[in-house]
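Hey, can you fold this one?
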Amino acid sequence: MIKNQWYVVLDAKQLKKNKLLGVTRLSEKLVFWRDEKNEVNCIFDKCCHRGASLSAGKIINNHVECPFHGFQYDSGGKVNYIPANGKNSNVPDRYKVNAYLVKEAFGFIWLWYSDERVDVPEIPFFEELKEGFSYDGFSETWGVHYTRAIENQLDVVHLPFVHKSTIGKGGKTLVNGPVVKWEENMMTFYVKNEIDNGQTPEKPNDIQAYETLFSLQLQMPN
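Sure. Predicted structure:
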């Protein structure tokens, strides 16, 4: 994964109040919950004591209680209470798990993927959709790394061979360009495929009026 980036990890509607949610994201087992202020928290989903799954426990006073021995974790991942030792006992600092910086914004739960929390930027998102665009959402698990999915979206050479009856119809095997433009963290990819009549493919800098071409936009990192 690309570090020092915000990643969408959940649809905000998936996370209910007073319920723990355990998921695997960014190759790590995580447990999410909402506190009494409805703010989102996230820690590593494995008790530092005997390795039990914390997401199988419950929420007690904004803490996650381990289902095995009742250890209680705060939002910073530290154990504040070990029932077997009594309420007045001190808990050693070593009893803790990783905590993750998460935010709720634009209808999603975002996680900052990094080894550090310094200079964390604002969450990148479309301010608004341009006129003529609409949107919808769905969730689906793909058995590939997300960079392979991006690579596939940007591979215009395969269109007339794999998608002959839809976006690749017409036998347009000759690829001009393509033209790639960056604006901050937004990449716009302009496609100009043609039927091969023996002409020389145009180089990206030679393509005129590329703004009128079919294009694909990807906002990094999501």
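The first helix runs from residue 146 to 154. Let me know if you want another pass with a different chain boundary.
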